[in-house]
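Session log. Operator J.P. requested a structure for one protein chain; no other inputs attached. Running the standard single-chain path with token output.
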Amino acid sequence: MAISSDYMQELSQRTDIVELVSGYVQLRRRGRTYTGLCPFHSEKTPSFVVYPENSSFYCFGCGVGGDAITFVRKINNLDYIEAVKLLASRAGMPLPDERDDAGQIKRRILAMNKDAARFFAAQLNTEEGRAARGYLRGRALSDATIRHFGLGYAPGGFHATGDYLKKLGYTEEELLAGGIVKRSQRGGTYDFFHDRVIFPIIDLRGNVIAFGGRRMGEEGGPKYLNSGDTPVFKKSRNMFALNFAKKSQSKRYILCEGYMDAIALHQAGFDTAVAPLGTAFTPEQAKLLSNYAEELVLSYDSDEAGQKATRRAIGLLANESMKVSILTVQGAKDPDEFIKKYGAERFQMLLDGCSNAIEYALSRAKAKYDLTKPDGQVGYLRDAIEILSGRLTPTERDVYAGRVAEETNVEKKAVQTQLDARLRAKGRKAAKEREKALLEEGAASQIKVPYTQGGQKALGVAFAEQQLMAAALKDPKLLEKIAGRVTPGQFITPEMAQVYELLLRRRQAGEYIDLTQLSGELPEKTVSLLSRILAQNYDVGFTERDVEMYLSRIEDSVPRSVGAAEMSGEELESYLRRLRDQRR
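Structure written below.
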């Protein structure tokens, strides 16, 4: 579907991309651009750049780029129309009223989830919800906490929730799409959640996007059941209670194993507790938390499963800018039990004294060996060297190298010698990988030419096509000269041919041309490619002489016999005239 060019032009002019991105990324000004850590992949050195002059962004690390709409789509997992509407609302513009089937089903699911959450909350206070209330009270949750998190109860049986929502006008297809009901083997439907305590999952904009449910009896499926992925919910990209945690003044977040752990911590006053959504902690969740937290405390159970989860989370967080700490709870199986036994003040002391990821890794390694024996000392030293050769500062390495030397009764100089050797070995390996990456990141490697068009021999032509499109976007007046010389059919790269055809169509209609105008009609990969080309030419002022050079390269790439056969009389005469001029 299309939105008018005038509407998109006004939206583009009203949207300050620096202000928009600053709501998600901490940006620092660098001359005419702004840089920060990319929100779309893990990095410690900023490679994400915002270009206010053409309202675009590009990450030189992961290759993601685009305009304000592209940014909003990716950061919030929205479709194009939803992103436009979000920006329009932000800019105080009336929303476009065109129909949109994908957006319509999402809006219906969100409305249905909201009604379902109200239904579950009401059912908690019925006679049938007595056992569920008893469970929550047994976990020492107050009425205020239950209301705050919107906790509820899904009635027993298999049709209560679905029947209620159908009476409100929701169709069976919508119930299935939202995961409220499931299709049985016999072809009928049944409530996905029944006889369970319900935990609504709310996104950062306050929408109910999914549910978690805890089984009440000893039988009846898994202890915890969670919504599957739907058009409005991707469990790997969301966090339970992050909608509350982001409002806190504290930048120290606590990562818990489950819903109840996070809720109990919030009730105790630790309002930055969050939890995954029925899956292991994911890279997307690590990146999401890094947008809000300066320190992340891992608060998993002390059993083997919890420690395995801790080690996995540490690995995922290694490339994030957050400080990572590990909470050790003694005298209780989890934070909830500890707070009930000893109080919130003692738990605060635990938080303040928790170890960092280095100390945790060293303590785990140390526990594997008997340090009273030489082979135990050697084994621990070997593991410790590997740990200390990771992502540490020189000061951290020096401090912990001294500690390891004391623990193994080895001179610190010997430990440092082994550590330096390991660092050199890793450095050589990293240098080879960087060299390979640089070769792959060259301009030529970014240009994909169809084999039928000459493969690698046509790279110069493909580069010329990209430069012409950059020139046209930076200075649309140059499009007049380009349009008079080459057609989209002469382009050898399909992506640039599509861009060129779109530019010509907008020029013919007299419409405004910029990246925002194009992003809704081009594939995401092509928008990122255009953003990279614009980023590489940010400080380049294209002249007619530059355009002439690129045009000539494209024209000269066409075999003369083939080209002449396809030319009209006027085109052939013009072509021969240019050849004569070139000879002179």
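Operator note: The chain has five domains: 5-91, 101-233, 242-353, 371-440, 445-583.
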